[in-house]
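Quick one, T. Sequence first:
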Amino acid sequence: MKTAPKLITVLNGVTATTTSAAQGVENAKKITFLFTRANHSAGSSAFKVSGSIDGAAGTYVDLNLLIDNVTNTNAQTVTRVGTVTLSSNTSKVYALDMESFNFNYITVTVTETTDGTHTAKMLLES
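Structure tokens:
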């Protein structure tokens, strides 16, 4: 039986450079992220996702597997990025490429330059 996707707030309104707690994602079929920056006056905020295959306290590697929600022509492949930079009050959505990879745990880090309030949400389908 298929279970409903689970919405998890990974970072909730943080106002400084922060790394989330480890999020269990073993056997995930799809992971979609919503990164949001609010209360912008200057600077930018950079979000990145790191993955581990050896446990919550294991070794984390920065992932260049975020599929950008950009327009492609039929001749182009999907665009993957490692960092999402937001320089205004905005939100962007990305999918984690799970076709060739699997992780036990992931973390999300936001690096703040100047100011802002940062939120990261994850929709997890197993």
